[in-house]
Specification:
about 375 residues; single chain; about 50% helix; DctP_fam; alpha/beta; TRAP_DctP_sf; six-stranded mixed β-sheet; TRAP transporter substrate-binding protein DctP; signal; five-stranded mixed β-sheet; SBP_TakP-like
Length: about 375
């Protein structure tokens, strides 16, 4: 009898211990996360990579259920849903929200300015991370940049664009507030379309040409089937940043240790995304050429004119909005500071020309 009682007590203790272990193994927070990208656009891989890494690093503290774009709500609604707490997190491209604040535009991309490593440097060491927090913080969100791609493909369409003169009168699908302004100065007109609508728009002649993303993403979207011509380089988006919007209350519910794990996952994903997209871009370029796509390269003179117009557009935008000015002031200050090392290490250190940049003095005058 004593043995039976001892066995029962031992079994009870083991059960209590097992229950305690199970409760600590379960995630303390359950998050729903979606993105602006549907499953058929390869940029979703960046969002998915971060969510999976978080579940590995912090799965006993927070568990993310990731849903592809469009499965919970239209991609245009993820900002509001995250701000209000309807969902805890959403992957995005900041430029989609430039209508709310023009400062979102340079947080997403630049025209003829940053490359991918510039964004990495600026975010990690030159004050960029803090500016993402300041801009998104106005909307009850924390922001973790976790994706970087280098310059985008350029324009694709059924007619060649061999020089900036060929842009005159063209209707082109183009994302970004500042990018649209530069295009208008060059004589073209900006058409706004969701990524999933571009294929048919080119095919049916709704637009004369279109840009979307890097060659790897563009090829998987099927653009070689409808666009015979490809104008390079992608001056309109010299690099791009993607990240995750996190509802402030959901973020605050996490321990500092868990928050740090999410930041570490973002940094790791950012490094991976740059290498991943460069490999995808290389393989995509090879496939476009194999399919017979004709590449047209803009001249150095054309690119210098684009830079001149870009500089004017940046200063114009800075004088319209203080936060827009603050972001670009930080970016250009970085470029000027980094040039002390970059310029003396040419050609081995990303030999970006830094002698024709927007005027810091003119931007400061508007701040």
């Amino acid at each position: 009898m004593k043995k039976m009682r001892k066995f029962a007590l031992t079994g009870l203790a083991a059960g209590v211990a097992l229950a305690a272990m199970s409760s600590t193994a379960q995630a303390q927070e359950q998050w729903t996360m979606t993105t602006t990208w549907p499953d058929n656009l390869d940029l979703i891989q960046i969002d998915r990579h971060w969510a999976e890494l978080v579940n590995k690093l912090a799965g006993d503290e927070v568990q993310i259920e990731f849903r592809a774009g469009g499965t919970l709500m239209p991609g245009t609604e993820v900002f509001d849903a995250t701000e209000t707490g309807s969902i805890e997190a959403a992957g995005d491209w900041p430029g989609y929200w430039a209508g709310r604040s023009p400062a979102f535009s340079p947080l997403a991309t630049t025209t003829s300015l940053f490359n991918g490593v510039d964004y990495l440097n600026w975010i990690m060491e030159w004050g960029g991370w803090e500016l993402y927090q300041e801009v998104y913080g106005q909307y009850n969100m924390v922001y973790l940049p976790y994706g970087i791609t280098n310059n985008e493909s350029g324009f694709r369409g059924g007619t060649p664009i061999e020089s900036i003169a060929d842009l005159d009168g063209k209707r082109l699908r183009l994302s970004g507030r500042d990018q649209g302004r530069v295009l208008e100065e060059l004589g073209g007109s900006q058409v706004t379309l969701a990524g999933g609508e571009i294929y048919q728009a080119i095919e049916r002649g709704v637009v004369d040409g279109a840009e979307f993303s890097t060659p790897g993403v563009d090829y998987k979207a099927g653009f070689s089937e409808v666009a015979d011509y490809w104008s390079v380089p992608g001056w309109h988006q010299s690099a791009s940043v993607f990240g995750v919007m996190i509802n402030q209350d959901a973020w605050d519910a996490l321990s500092e240790e868990t928050q740090e794990k999410l930041k570490i996952a973002a940094e790791a994903t950012m490094a991976w995304s740059l290498a991943w997209s460069e490999r995808e871009s290389t393989e995509g370029t090879v496939k476009f050429l194999e399919d017979g796509t004709e590449i047209n390269q803009l001249s150095e003179e054309d690119l210098a004119e684009i830079q001149r117009i870009t500089n004017d557009v940046i200063v114009q935008g800075a004088c319209e909005d203080p936060m827009h000015a603050k972001v670009y002031h930080s970016m250009i200050s970085y470029l000027e500071h980094y040039a002390n090392w970059r310029d003396v290490s040419v050609p081995y250190n990303m030999s970006r020309v830094t002698d024709d940049l927007p005027s810091l003095e003119e931007i400061e005058a508007c701040m």
